[in-house]
Amino acid sequence: MPAVVPSLVGTEDALLQQLADSMLKADCTSELKVHLARSLPLPCSVNRPRIDLIVFVVNLHSKLSLQSVEESLCHLDAAFFLGKVAFLATGAGRDSHCSIHRNTVVKLAHTYRSPLLFCDLEIEDFRAAMAQRLVRLLQICAGHVPGVSALNLLSLMRGSENPSLEDL
Amino acid sequence: MSAKEMDETLAEFFRRTILKIPMTEMMTILKTWNFLSENQLQTVNFRQRKESIVQDLVLLCEENHASLNDAAHLDIIYTQFHRHQKIWDVFQMSKAPGDDIDLFDMEQFKSSFKKILQRALKNVTVSFRDAEENSVWIRIAWGTQYKKPNQYKPAYVVYYSQTPYAFTSSSRLKSNLPLLGQALTVASKHHQIVKMDLRSRYLDSLKAIVFKQYNQSFETHNCTTSLQEGSLGLDINMDSRIIHENKVEKERVQRVTQEIFGDYPQPRLEFAQYKLETKFKSDLNGGILAEREEPLRCLVKFSSPHLLEALKSLAPAGIADAPLSPLLTCIPNKGKNYFKIRDK
Protein backbone atom coordinates (compact mmCIF):
# COMPACT_ATOMS: atom_id res chain seq x y z
CA MET A 1 0.00 0.00 0.00
CA PRO A 2 1.29 3.46 -0.71
CA ALA A 3 2.28 5.70 2.18
CA VAL A 4 -0.31 7.82 3.93
CA VAL A 5 0.58 11.47 3.78
CA PRO A 6 -0.95 14.33 5.71
CA SER A 7 -0.11 17.88 4.84
CA LEU A 8 0.29 20.27 7.75
CA VAL A 9 -0.24 23.81 6.58
CA GLY A 10 0.54 26.82 8.77
CA THR A 11 2.91 29.73 9.30
CA GLU A 12 4.55 28.55 12.46
CA ASP A 13 7.32 26.23 11.39
CA ALA A 14 8.44 25.20 14.82
CA LEU A 15 4.98 24.00 15.84
CA LEU A 16 4.42 22.17 12.56
CA GLN A 17 7.78 20.51 12.89
CA GLN A 18 7.02 19.34 16.39
CA LEU A 19 3.63 18.02 15.37
CA ALA A 20 5.19 16.19 12.44
CA ASP A 21 7.75 14.58 14.75
CA SER A 22 4.98 13.51 17.12
CA MET A 23 2.95 12.01 14.31
CA LEU A 24 5.92 10.00 13.13
CA LYS A 25 6.26 8.62 16.63
CA ALA A 26 2.60 7.66 16.87
CA ASP A 27 1.28 4.18 16.14
CA CYS A 28 0.49 3.77 12.50
CA THR A 29 0.03 0.49 10.68
CA SER A 30 0.72 2.09 7.32
CA GLU A 31 3.89 3.77 6.17
CA LEU A 32 3.71 7.44 7.10
CA LYS A 33 5.27 10.52 5.58
CA VAL A 34 4.44 14.07 6.61
CA HIS A 35 4.28 17.03 4.28
CA LEU A 36 4.79 20.54 5.66
CA ALA A 37 3.84 23.73 3.88
CA ARG A 38 3.63 27.31 4.90
CA SER A 39 0.61 28.15 2.76
CA LEU A 40 -1.26 27.27 -0.39
CA PRO A 41 -1.01 27.21 -3.32
CA LEU A 42 1.98 24.91 -3.48
CA PRO A 43 4.55 25.65 -6.12
CA CYS A 44 3.65 23.43 -9.03
CA SER A 45 6.95 22.06 -10.20
CA VAL A 46 7.72 19.57 -7.47
CA ASN A 47 7.09 15.86 -7.61
CA ARG A 48 4.86 15.38 -4.66
CA PRO A 49 3.09 12.38 -3.09
CA ARG A 50 -0.68 12.29 -3.03
CA ILE A 51 -2.00 14.13 0.01
CA ASP A 52 -4.61 12.24 2.05
CA LEU A 53 -5.49 14.82 4.68
CA ILE A 54 -4.84 18.51 5.05
CA VAL A 55 -4.58 19.96 8.52
CA PHE A 56 -4.66 23.75 8.67
CA VAL A 57 -2.89 24.85 11.83
CA VAL A 58 -3.96 28.18 13.30
CA ASN A 59 -2.17 29.72 16.25
CA LEU A 60 -4.74 31.67 18.25
CA HIS A 61 -1.96 34.00 19.37
CA SER A 62 -1.21 35.12 15.84
CA LYS A 63 -3.55 36.97 13.52
CA LEU A 64 -1.03 36.33 10.78
CA SER A 65 -1.46 32.58 11.07
CA LEU A 66 -5.23 32.88 10.70
CA GLN A 67 -4.92 35.23 7.78
CA SER A 68 -2.53 32.92 6.01
CA VAL A 69 -4.86 29.94 6.47
CA GLU A 70 -7.86 31.92 5.20
CA GLU A 71 -5.93 32.88 2.09
CA SER A 72 -4.74 29.33 1.55
CA LEU A 73 -8.27 27.92 1.72
CA CYS A 74 -9.22 29.71 -1.47
CA HIS A 75 -6.66 27.72 -3.39
CA LEU A 76 -7.74 24.30 -2.29
CA ASP A 77 -9.58 21.96 -4.61
CA ALA A 78 -13.20 21.51 -3.52
CA ALA A 79 -12.88 17.73 -3.45
CA PHE A 80 -10.75 17.92 -0.36
CA PHE A 81 -13.58 19.36 1.64
CA LEU A 82 -15.38 16.05 1.57
CA GLY A 83 -13.71 14.89 4.74
CA LYS A 84 -10.07 15.45 3.94
CA VAL A 85 -9.64 18.78 5.63
CA ALA A 86 -9.32 19.50 9.32
CA PHE A 87 -8.57 22.62 11.30
CA LEU A 88 -6.33 22.58 14.32
CA ALA A 89 -6.27 25.55 16.67
CA THR A 90 -3.41 25.87 19.12
CA GLY A 91 -2.80 28.29 21.97
CA ALA A 92 -6.26 28.31 23.53
CA GLY A 93 -4.76 27.36 26.87
CA ARG A 94 -3.07 30.74 27.27
CA ASP A 95 -6.09 32.94 27.09
CA SER A 96 -4.25 36.19 27.75
CA HIS A 97 -2.09 35.67 24.67
CA CYS A 98 -4.97 34.99 22.31
CA SER A 99 -5.65 37.65 19.74
CA ILE A 100 -8.12 35.53 17.83
CA HIS A 101 -11.44 34.66 19.36
CA ARG A 102 -12.34 31.01 19.60
CA ASN A 103 -15.56 31.66 17.73
CA THR A 104 -13.67 32.93 14.74
CA VAL A 105 -12.11 29.54 14.09
CA VAL A 106 -15.37 27.79 14.95
CA LYS A 107 -17.09 29.84 12.27
CA LEU A 108 -14.28 29.20 9.82
CA ALA A 109 -14.50 25.44 10.30
CA HIS A 110 -18.27 25.60 10.02
CA THR A 111 -18.07 27.58 6.78
CA TYR A 112 -15.84 24.93 5.26
CA ARG A 113 -17.84 22.06 6.74
CA SER A 114 -14.77 20.56 8.33
CA PRO A 115 -13.89 19.41 11.84
CA LEU A 116 -12.09 21.70 14.24
CA LEU A 117 -9.70 20.35 16.82
CA PHE A 118 -8.15 22.23 19.70
CA CYS A 119 -4.73 21.33 21.03
CA ASP A 120 -1.93 23.25 22.71
CA LEU A 121 0.86 21.95 20.53
CA GLU A 122 3.54 23.32 22.81
CA ILE A 123 2.67 20.79 25.48
CA GLU A 124 4.28 17.50 24.65
CA ASP A 125 1.64 15.17 26.08
CA PHE A 126 -1.26 16.99 24.43
CA ARG A 127 0.65 17.08 21.18
CA ALA A 128 1.36 13.35 21.31
CA ALA A 129 -2.29 12.58 21.95
CA MET A 130 -3.40 14.84 19.11
CA ALA A 131 -0.78 13.33 16.81
CA GLN A 132 -2.20 9.88 17.47
CA ARG A 133 -5.68 11.12 16.76
CA LEU A 134 -4.61 12.73 13.52
CA VAL A 135 -2.92 9.53 12.43
CA ARG A 136 -6.16 7.59 12.95
CA LEU A 137 -8.01 10.26 11.01
CA LEU A 138 -5.40 10.10 8.32
CA GLN A 139 -5.65 6.36 7.88
CA ILE A 140 -9.39 6.60 7.37
CA CYS A 141 -9.02 9.43 4.88
CA ALA A 142 -6.44 7.45 2.96
CA GLY A 143 -8.89 4.59 2.71
CA HIS A 144 -6.75 2.26 4.79
CA VAL A 145 -9.53 1.37 7.18
CA PRO A 146 -12.05 -0.95 5.54
CA GLY A 147 -15.67 0.07 5.89
CA VAL A 148 -15.09 3.69 6.85
CA SER A 149 -14.57 6.47 4.36
CA ALA A 150 -13.54 10.06 4.87
CA LEU A 151 -17.08 11.19 4.22
CA ASN A 152 -18.55 8.74 6.76
CA LEU A 153 -16.15 10.01 9.30
CA LEU A 154 -17.00 13.58 8.58
CA SER A 155 -20.68 13.11 9.26
CA LEU A 156 -19.91 11.11 12.39
CA MET A 157 -17.62 13.79 13.74
CA ARG A 158 -19.98 16.56 12.90
CA GLY A 159 -22.69 15.11 15.06
CA SER A 160 -20.83 14.86 18.35
CA GLU A 161 -18.02 17.38 18.22
CA ASN A 162 -19.04 20.35 16.26
CA PRO A 163 -22.54 21.45 17.07
CA SER A 164 -23.78 23.79 14.41
CA LEU A 165 -23.62 27.43 15.27
CA GLU A 166 -27.39 27.58 15.63
CA ASP A 167 -27.10 25.25 18.59
CA LEU A 168 -24.49 27.33 20.36
CA MET B 1 41.63 49.13 75.48
CA SER B 2 37.89 49.04 75.78
CA ALA B 3 35.86 48.45 72.70
CA LYS B 4 34.18 51.66 71.69
CA GLU B 5 30.44 51.42 71.36
CA MET B 6 29.66 51.47 67.69
CA ASP B 7 27.45 54.28 66.54
CA GLU B 8 23.78 53.21 66.59
CA THR B 9 23.10 54.15 63.00
CA LEU B 10 26.26 52.42 61.81
CA ALA B 11 25.39 49.25 63.69
CA GLU B 12 21.94 49.35 62.13
CA PHE B 13 23.45 49.82 58.71
CA PHE B 14 25.66 46.76 59.25
CA ARG B 15 22.70 44.80 60.48
CA ARG B 16 20.54 45.63 57.49
CA THR B 17 23.33 45.09 54.98
CA ILE B 18 24.23 41.66 56.35
CA LEU B 19 20.55 40.73 56.66
CA LYS B 20 20.09 41.32 52.93
CA ILE B 21 22.62 38.60 52.10
CA PRO B 22 20.97 35.24 51.34
CA MET B 23 22.23 32.49 53.64
CA THR B 24 23.48 30.49 50.66
CA GLU B 25 25.88 33.29 49.82
CA MET B 26 26.76 34.40 53.33
CA MET B 27 30.11 32.65 53.71
CA THR B 28 31.26 33.52 50.20
CA ILE B 29 30.46 37.19 50.63
CA LEU B 30 31.96 37.43 54.11
CA LYS B 31 35.13 35.77 52.89
CA THR B 32 35.34 38.10 49.91
CA TRP B 33 34.90 41.01 52.29
CA ASN B 34 37.77 39.64 54.33
CA PHE B 35 37.08 41.87 57.30
CA LEU B 36 36.22 39.20 59.85
CA SER B 37 38.91 36.61 60.38
CA GLU B 38 38.49 32.89 59.86
CA ASN B 39 38.67 32.38 63.65
CA GLN B 40 35.99 34.95 64.28
CA LEU B 41 33.66 33.40 61.73
CA GLN B 42 34.10 30.04 63.36
CA THR B 43 32.74 31.39 66.62
CA VAL B 44 29.39 32.08 65.01
CA ASN B 45 26.75 29.39 65.12
CA PHE B 46 25.35 29.39 61.61
CA ARG B 47 22.53 27.09 62.56
CA GLN B 48 20.61 29.71 64.44
CA ARG B 49 17.81 31.80 63.06
CA LYS B 50 19.12 34.34 60.59
CA GLU B 51 18.40 37.32 62.87
CA SER B 52 20.59 35.82 65.57
CA ILE B 53 23.40 35.04 63.17
CA VAL B 54 23.30 38.61 61.94
CA GLN B 55 23.34 39.93 65.47
CA ASP B 56 26.45 37.87 66.23
CA LEU B 57 28.14 39.10 63.10
CA VAL B 58 27.39 42.71 63.94
CA LEU B 59 28.92 42.20 67.39
CA LEU B 60 32.05 40.87 65.72
CA CYS B 61 32.14 43.93 63.52
CA GLU B 62 31.97 46.08 66.62
CA GLU B 63 34.83 44.14 68.15
CA ASN B 64 36.91 44.91 65.08
CA HIS B 65 36.00 48.59 65.25
CA ALA B 66 34.40 48.43 61.85
CA SER B 67 33.97 51.79 60.19
CA LEU B 68 31.48 53.19 57.74
CA ASN B 69 34.03 52.53 55.06
CA ASP B 70 34.07 48.83 55.91
CA ALA B 71 30.30 48.76 55.76
CA ALA B 72 30.38 50.49 52.39
CA HIS B 73 32.80 47.85 51.13
CA LEU B 74 30.45 45.11 52.18
CA ASP B 75 27.63 46.90 50.40
CA ILE B 76 29.71 47.10 47.22
CA ILE B 77 30.47 43.39 47.37
CA TYR B 78 26.81 42.57 47.89
CA THR B 79 25.91 44.71 44.88
CA GLN B 80 28.60 43.06 42.77
CA PHE B 81 27.03 39.69 43.54
CA HIS B 82 23.55 41.06 42.85
CA ARG B 83 24.24 43.43 40.02
CA HIS B 84 21.06 42.36 38.25
CA GLN B 85 19.00 44.01 40.94
CA LYS B 86 19.98 47.42 39.61
CA ILE B 87 19.26 49.00 36.28
CA TRP B 88 22.41 50.30 34.63
CA ASP B 89 22.86 53.31 32.35
CA VAL B 90 25.88 53.81 30.15
CA PHE B 91 27.93 56.97 29.86
CA GLN B 92 30.59 57.73 27.33
CA MET B 93 33.29 60.31 27.91
CA SER B 94 35.46 62.03 25.38
CA LYS B 95 38.57 64.09 25.45
CA ALA B 96 38.79 67.48 23.80
CA PRO B 97 40.60 67.44 20.49
CA GLY B 98 44.22 68.18 21.14
CA ASP B 99 44.19 66.90 24.71
CA ASP B 100 47.21 64.93 25.77
CA ILE B 101 46.73 61.28 26.40
CA ASP B 102 47.78 61.15 30.03
CA LEU B 103 48.75 57.93 31.67
CA PHE B 104 45.90 56.92 33.90
CA ASP B 105 46.66 56.90 37.63
CA MET B 106 44.01 55.05 39.62
CA GLU B 107 44.89 56.57 42.98
CA GLN B 108 44.87 60.05 41.57
CA PHE B 109 41.50 59.40 39.92
CA LYS B 110 39.99 58.19 43.18
CA SER B 111 41.29 61.07 45.23
CA SER B 112 40.24 63.62 42.65
CA PHE B 113 36.77 62.09 42.28
CA LYS B 114 36.21 62.11 46.02
CA LYS B 115 37.45 65.66 46.43
CA ILE B 116 35.12 67.01 43.76
CA LEU B 117 32.07 65.44 45.40
CA GLN B 118 33.10 66.45 48.87
CA ARG B 119 33.70 70.02 47.85
CA ALA B 120 30.25 70.27 46.29
CA LEU B 121 28.28 68.43 48.97
CA LYS B 122 29.72 68.55 52.41
CA ASN B 123 28.05 65.27 53.27
CA VAL B 124 28.80 62.42 50.94
CA THR B 125 30.28 58.95 51.42
CA VAL B 126 32.50 57.75 48.62
CA SER B 127 33.99 54.26 48.60
CA PHE B 128 36.01 52.37 46.02
CA ARG B 129 36.69 48.76 45.20
CA ASP B 130 39.02 47.73 42.44
CA ALA B 131 37.83 45.04 40.08
CA GLU B 132 38.93 43.14 37.00
CA GLU B 133 40.10 44.67 33.75
CA ASN B 134 41.34 47.89 35.37
CA SER B 135 37.87 48.78 36.51
CA VAL B 136 36.73 50.32 39.74
CA TRP B 137 33.40 50.11 41.51
CA ILE B 138 32.45 53.35 43.20
CA ARG B 139 29.73 53.63 45.81
CA ILE B 140 28.29 57.05 46.58
CA ALA B 141 25.89 57.78 49.41
CA TRP B 142 24.41 61.22 48.88
CA GLY B 143 23.83 63.83 51.57
CA THR B 144 23.37 67.58 51.40
CA GLN B 145 24.95 70.55 53.11
CA TYR B 146 22.74 69.93 56.08
CA LYS B 147 21.82 66.26 55.99
CA LYS B 148 24.00 63.24 56.57
CA PRO B 149 24.38 60.85 53.65
CA ASN B 150 21.58 58.37 53.10
CA GLN B 151 23.37 55.03 53.20
CA TYR B 152 20.33 53.15 52.01
CA LYS B 153 20.04 54.74 48.58
CA PRO B 154 23.56 54.77 47.21
CA ALA B 155 24.50 55.20 43.59
CA TYR B 156 27.05 52.91 41.97
CA VAL B 157 29.46 53.68 39.19
CA VAL B 158 31.57 51.08 37.44
CA TYR B 159 34.35 52.79 35.52
CA TYR B 160 36.63 50.94 33.12
CA SER B 161 39.72 53.09 33.30
CA GLN B 162 41.23 52.00 30.01
CA THR B 163 38.07 53.01 28.19
CA PRO B 164 35.87 56.09 28.05
CA TYR B 165 32.91 54.16 29.44
CA ALA B 166 31.23 54.19 32.81
CA PHE B 167 28.12 52.35 33.95
CA THR B 168 25.91 53.84 36.62
CA SER B 169 23.07 52.36 38.57
CA SER B 170 20.04 54.58 38.16
CA SER B 171 19.80 56.40 41.40
CA ARG B 172 16.47 57.65 42.61
CA LEU B 173 18.16 60.89 43.54
CA LYS B 174 18.40 62.14 39.99
CA SER B 175 19.39 65.66 40.91
CA ASN B 176 22.90 64.51 41.68
CA LEU B 177 23.48 63.07 38.26
CA PRO B 178 25.11 66.19 36.72
CA LEU B 179 27.50 66.40 39.65
CA LEU B 180 28.36 62.74 39.31
CA GLY B 181 29.02 63.18 35.62
CA GLN B 182 31.21 66.16 36.27
CA ALA B 183 33.24 64.38 38.92
CA LEU B 184 33.81 61.40 36.66
CA THR B 185 34.80 63.55 33.71
CA VAL B 186 37.20 65.79 35.56
CA ALA B 187 38.78 63.07 37.67
CA SER B 188 39.42 60.88 34.66
CA LYS B 189 40.78 63.84 32.69
CA HIS B 190 38.09 63.87 30.07
CA HIS B 191 36.34 66.83 28.58
CA GLN B 192 32.78 65.78 28.07
CA ILE B 193 30.35 63.11 29.14
CA VAL B 194 27.30 61.88 27.25
CA LYS B 195 24.59 59.49 28.30
CA MET B 196 24.13 56.70 25.79
CA ASP B 197 20.71 55.46 24.81
CA LEU B 198 21.42 52.11 26.32
CA ARG B 199 20.05 50.64 29.52
CA SER B 200 19.66 47.20 31.03
CA ARG B 201 19.89 45.17 34.23
CA TYR B 202 22.59 43.01 32.76
CA LEU B 203 25.82 44.83 33.31
CA ASP B 204 27.87 42.14 31.63
CA SER B 205 25.75 42.37 28.51
CA LEU B 206 26.09 46.14 28.44
CA LYS B 207 29.84 45.66 28.67
CA ALA B 208 29.81 43.18 25.83
CA ILE B 209 27.83 45.54 23.64
CA VAL B 210 29.84 48.62 24.39
CA PHE B 211 33.24 46.93 24.17
CA LYS B 212 32.08 45.06 21.08
CA GLN B 213 32.83 41.71 22.66
CA TYR B 214 29.50 40.12 21.95
CA ASN B 215 30.49 38.48 18.74
CA GLN B 216 32.88 36.20 20.47
CA SER B 217 31.62 33.68 22.93
CA PHE B 218 31.31 35.29 26.34
CA GLU B 219 29.98 34.31 29.74
CA THR B 220 26.60 35.30 30.95
CA HIS B 221 25.00 34.17 34.16
CA ASN B 222 22.04 32.68 32.39
CA CYS B 223 23.11 31.68 28.95
CA THR B 224 19.76 30.96 27.39
CA THR B 225 19.86 29.62 23.89
CA SER B 226 16.80 29.62 21.69
CA LEU B 227 13.69 29.93 23.71
CA GLN B 228 11.74 27.56 21.59
CA GLU B 229 12.83 23.99 21.52
CA GLY B 230 14.71 23.45 18.30
CA SER B 231 13.73 26.83 16.91
CA LEU B 232 17.01 27.84 15.36
CA GLY B 233 18.27 24.32 15.59
CA LEU B 234 15.65 23.42 13.03
CA ASP B 235 18.00 21.38 10.94
CA ILE B 236 17.02 21.05 7.38
CA ASN B 237 18.25 17.49 7.38
CA MET B 238 15.84 15.73 9.55
CA ASP B 239 13.68 12.76 9.20
CA SER B 240 13.42 11.94 5.52
CA ARG B 241 9.78 11.07 6.09
CA ILE B 242 9.08 14.78 6.51
CA ILE B 243 8.69 16.64 3.25
CA HIS B 244 9.25 20.36 3.45
CA GLU B 245 7.42 22.19 0.75
CA ASN B 246 9.11 25.44 1.54
CA LYS B 247 12.59 24.05 1.97
CA VAL B 248 14.24 26.70 -0.12
CA GLU B 249 12.54 29.47 1.79
CA LYS B 250 13.42 27.91 5.13
CA GLU B 251 17.03 27.65 4.15
CA ARG B 252 17.01 31.27 3.09
CA VAL B 253 15.54 32.34 6.39
CA GLN B 254 18.13 30.35 8.34
CA ARG B 255 20.93 31.83 6.31
CA VAL B 256 19.71 35.41 6.61
CA THR B 257 19.14 35.04 10.34
CA GLN B 258 22.60 33.68 10.81
CA GLU B 259 24.15 36.47 8.77
CA ILE B 260 22.47 39.08 10.89
CA PHE B 261 22.69 37.54 14.34
CA GLY B 262 25.67 35.28 14.04
CA ASP B 263 26.27 31.98 15.80
CA TYR B 264 27.13 33.33 19.20
CA PRO B 265 24.80 33.90 22.17
CA GLN B 266 23.28 37.37 22.09
CA PRO B 267 23.89 39.90 24.85
CA ARG B 268 20.99 40.09 27.24
CA LEU B 269 18.63 43.04 27.17
CA GLU B 270 15.13 43.25 28.54
CA PHE B 271 13.60 45.81 26.25
CA ALA B 272 13.90 48.12 23.26
CA GLN B 273 11.95 51.34 23.09
CA TYR B 274 11.07 53.35 20.01
CA LYS B 275 9.70 56.84 20.24
CA LEU B 276 8.05 57.88 17.01
CA GLU B 277 7.49 61.45 16.03
CA THR B 278 6.46 61.29 12.45
CA LYS B 279 3.85 62.92 10.34
CA PHE B 280 0.95 60.81 9.28
CA LYS B 281 1.37 59.43 5.77
CA SER B 282 -1.56 58.12 3.82
CA ASP B 283 -2.33 57.03 0.31
CA LEU B 284 -5.91 58.17 0.63
CA ASN B 285 -6.47 61.72 -0.31
CA GLY B 286 -7.90 64.02 2.27
CA GLY B 287 -8.08 61.81 5.30
CA ILE B 288 -8.58 63.70 8.54
CA LEU B 289 -5.09 62.95 9.71
CA ALA B 290 -3.44 63.62 6.39
CA GLU B 291 -3.71 67.35 6.80
CA ARG B 292 -2.29 67.40 10.26
CA GLU B 293 0.91 69.41 10.42
CA GLU B 294 2.11 68.23 13.77
CA PRO B 295 3.79 64.88 13.97
CA LEU B 296 2.05 62.02 15.68
CA ARG B 297 3.73 60.78 18.80
CA CYS B 298 3.77 57.19 19.78
CA LEU B 299 5.87 54.88 21.89
CA VAL B 300 6.51 51.26 21.03
CA LYS B 301 8.24 49.06 23.54
CA PHE B 302 9.40 45.49 23.05
CA SER B 303 9.98 43.52 26.26
CA SER B 304 11.39 40.09 26.81
CA PRO B 305 13.41 38.11 29.33
CA HIS B 306 16.04 37.97 26.58
CA LEU B 307 15.10 40.36 23.82
CA LEU B 308 17.82 39.69 21.27
CA GLU B 309 17.45 35.91 21.41
CA ALA B 310 13.71 36.35 21.03
CA LEU B 311 14.19 38.55 17.96
CA LYS B 312 16.64 36.04 16.54
CA SER B 313 14.06 33.26 16.76
CA LEU B 314 11.17 35.20 15.17
CA ALA B 315 11.88 34.47 11.51
CA PRO B 316 12.82 30.79 11.92
CA ALA B 317 9.65 30.30 13.94
CA GLY B 318 7.57 31.73 11.11
CA ILE B 319 6.30 34.66 13.12
CA ALA B 320 8.08 37.34 11.12
CA ASP B 321 9.64 37.71 7.72
CA ALA B 322 13.39 37.62 7.28
CA PRO B 323 15.27 39.90 7.26
CA LEU B 324 13.87 41.72 10.27
CA SER B 325 13.65 45.47 10.30
CA PRO B 326 17.06 47.05 10.74
CA LEU B 327 15.60 49.05 13.60
CA LEU B 328 15.51 45.81 15.55
CA THR B 329 18.71 44.22 14.34
CA CYS B 330 20.94 47.25 14.80
CA ILE B 331 20.64 47.23 18.59
CA PRO B 332 23.97 45.63 19.55
CA ASN B 333 25.82 47.27 16.67
CA LYS B 334 24.65 50.74 17.48
CA GLY B 335 24.79 50.16 21.21
CA LYS B 336 21.30 51.53 21.64
CA ASN B 337 18.01 50.27 22.92
CA TYR B 338 16.28 53.62 23.00
CA PHE B 339 15.41 55.10 19.64
CA LYS B 340 13.83 58.33 18.50
CA ILE B 341 12.44 58.20 15.02
CA ARG B 342 11.63 61.41 13.26
CA ASP B 343 10.79 62.30 9.71
CA LYS B 344 13.94 62.88 7.74
Automatic annotation (TrEMBL), chain A:
Keyword Nucleus appears in the UniProt entry: yes
Superkingdom as given in the UniProt entry: Eukaryota
Pfam families (UniProt xref): CENP-M
Signal peptide boundaries: none
Keywords: Centromere, Chromosome, Cytoplasm, Kinetochore, Nucleus
Localization in the cell: Chromosome, Centromere, Kinetochore; Cytoplasm; Nucleus
Gene3D superfamilies according to UniProt: P-loop containing nucleotide triphosphate hydrolases
Matching InterPro entries: Centromere_Cenp-M, P-loop_NTPase
Chief subcellular location: nucleus
GO cellular component: cytoplasm; inner kinetochore; nucleus
Function: Component of the CENPA-NAC (nucleosome-associated) complex, a complex that plays a central role in assembly of kinetochore proteins, mitotic progression and chromosome segregation. The CENPA-NAC complex recruits the CENPA-CAD (nucleosome distal) complex and may be involved in incorporation of newly synthesized CENPA into centromeres.
Subunit composition and interactions: Component of the CENPA-NAC complex, at least composed of CENPA, CENPC, CENPH, CENPM, CENPN, CENPT and CENPU. The CENPA-NAC complex interacts with the CENPA-CAD complex, composed of CENPI, CENPK, CENPL, CENPO, CENPP, CENPQ, CENPR and CENPS.
Name of the protein this chain belongs to: Centromere protein M
Name of encoding gene: CENPM
UniProtKB/TrEMBL annotation, chain B:
InterPro entries reported for this sequence: CENP-NAC/CAD_complex, Chl4/mis15/CENP-N
GO CC terms of this entry: chromosome, centromeric region; nucleus
Biological process according to GO: CENP-A containing chromatin assembly; chromosome segregation
Keyword Nucleus (UniProt): yes
Entry coiled-coil feature ranges: none
Subcellular location: Chromosome, Centromere; Nucleus
Protein keywords: Centromere, Chromosome, Nucleus
Family, as annotated: Belongs to the CENP-N/CHL4 family.
Protein name according to UniProt: Centromere protein N
Biological source species: Bos taurus
